[in-house]
């Protein structure tokens, strides 16, 4: 089927600009962009001047299958992603059991096949994510792994990590690290400082992130492996990142949308939906992260979607599970930075779509002729109040419950197929 999207405000993160144009989709590919008329027989969608951008590629999505299907299933994650404008999810390996063998990777790949959006999987860097023995990286790559990570289980044995980096380098694999010094971070529920002390919460110093990043970057320098830091959240970590890039190392970095739009004071009176990993930082750090995204020092914005059931969140703050769902809130939360004048729409989609695609070698993330027609149509100014019980995710642990937000996804397309939205279509005949 041929689709004709007319009168769209195209957000192009590659050209870093906006144009009003029509767009032809044929065979799941963007066939033409310009002021042409609709091809004969095409289905016509009037975008009404609303924004059309590349679909979001969300790196670091936790899906509960296998082992924690009660928190999130492939079906509910797929529905949430489509509603949030996420056309590709990069799923994490921190499942029960971990995705650390080709057989387990093939299992989750089969389970993901029925989801309306694209799903690619990371695999664990070490067996069981225990940091003692590296996985069969080559076999896992053959089975479809796009990256390797132990997520929040930071390896304490530097020799094991060095060997894994060396092996990953020899195979051209991407390693995704979580920059934290595990000893300092253990048991922490908040960022150390006056606020944590007044609340009586065990804190972790921001230096833990810098120390963890320094160790990883030293190993990157020795091995030459491609490395992505999943979340940089403190200003003091940015100079090390800049030095690594100046030295020519293949290093990129991400940040979660929560650390761009919230700070440590949002925890308030022990609100566990605001307990995250890493914990929320100071307002100075939050502003530094926004500036780093604007300048390109931080490449990627992600949701770090981490579903948690009610029982694991309705506990004292120290004991409650960390993490928040984010597939549906990633986009409107990121638009807070647009409405605040901190980032342009093209800069936001550079971090949400183009840079993740470049990092993983995917053809998506662009609006150009020949690119896959993975697109999101949205109104950046449409206001709404978020109701967590209306989320498609099984788990409802969002810090944005009851928040006033602006920016609604009107339609989501994957390979030219509308997987979400009620945008009217007319026959071009």
UniProtKB/TrEMBL annotation:
SUPFAM superfamilies: Composite domain of metallo-dependent hydrolases, Metallo-dependent hydrolases
Pfam family, any one: DHOase
Ranges of residues in domain Amidohydrolase: 342-420
GO molecular function, one term: dihydroorotase activity
Signal sequence extent: none
EC number: 3.5.2.3
Keywords linked to the UniProt accession: Hydrolase, Pyrimidine biosynthesis, Zinc
The keyword Zinc is annotated on this UniProt entry: yes
Taxonomic superkingdom: Bacteria
UniProt KW Hydrolase keyword: yes
Annotated ranges, domain Dihydroorotase catalytic: 49-234
Annotated NCBIfam families: pyrC_multi (TIGR00857)
Name recorded for this polypeptide: Dihydroorotase
Originating organism: Rhodobacter lacus
Lineage, highest ranks first: Bacteria, Pseudomonadati, Pseudomonadota, Alphaproteobacteria, Rhodobacterales
Gene name linked to the record: pyrC
């Amino acid at each position: 089927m041929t689709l004709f999207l007319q009168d769209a405000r195209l957000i192009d993160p590659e050209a870093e600009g906006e144009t009003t144009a029509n767009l032809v989709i044929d065979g799941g590919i963007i066939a033409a962009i310009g002021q042409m008329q609709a091809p004969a027989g095409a289905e016509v969608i009037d975008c009404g001047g609303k924004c059309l951008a590349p679909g979001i590629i969300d790196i670091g999505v936790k899906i509960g299958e296998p082992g924690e299907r009660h928190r999130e299933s492939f079906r509910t994650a797929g529905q949430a992603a489509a509603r949030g404008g996420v056309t590709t999810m990069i799923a994490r390996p921190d499942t029960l059991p971990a995705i650390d063998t080709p057989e387990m990777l093939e299992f989750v790949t089969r389970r993901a096949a029925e989801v309306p959006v694209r799903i690619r999987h990371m695999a664990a860097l070490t067996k069981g994510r225990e940091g003692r023995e590296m996985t069969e990286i080559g076999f896992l790559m053959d089975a479809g792994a796009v990256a390797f990570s132990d997520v929040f289980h930071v390896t304490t044995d530097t020799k094991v990590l060095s060997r894994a980096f060396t092996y990953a380098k020899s195979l051209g694999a991407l390693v995704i690290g979580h920059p934290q010094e595990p000893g300092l971070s253990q048991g922490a529920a908040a960022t150390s400082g006056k606020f944590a002390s007044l609340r009586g919460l065990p804190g972790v110093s921001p230096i833990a992130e810098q120390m963890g990043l320094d160790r990883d970057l030293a190993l990157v320098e020795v091995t030459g492996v491609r490395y992505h830091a999943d979340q940089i959240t403190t200003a003091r970590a940015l100079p090390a990142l800049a030095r690594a890039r100046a030295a020519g190392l293949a290093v990129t970095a991400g940040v979660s949308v929560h650390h761009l739009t919230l700070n440590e004071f949002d925890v308030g009176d022990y609100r566990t939906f605001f307990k995250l990993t890493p914990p929320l930082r100071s307002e100075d750090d939050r502003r530094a992260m926004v500036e780093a995204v604007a300048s390109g020092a931080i490449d990627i914005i992600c949701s770090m979607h981490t579903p948690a059931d009610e029982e694991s969140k309705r506990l004292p703050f120290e004991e409650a599970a960390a993490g928040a769902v984010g597939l549906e809130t990633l986009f409107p939360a990121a638009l807070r930075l647009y409405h605040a004048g901190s980032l342009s729409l093209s800069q936001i989609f550079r971090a949400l779509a183009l840079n993740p695609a470049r990092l993983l070698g995917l053809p998506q993330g662009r609006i150009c002729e020949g690119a896959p027609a993975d697109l999101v149509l949205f109104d950046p100014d449409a206001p709404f109040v978020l109701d967590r019980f209306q989320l498609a995710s099984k788990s409802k642990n969002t810090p944005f419950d009851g928040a006033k937000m602006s920016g609604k996804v009107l339609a989501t397309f994957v390979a030219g197929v509308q997987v979400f939205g009620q945008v009217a279509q007319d026959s071009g005949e």
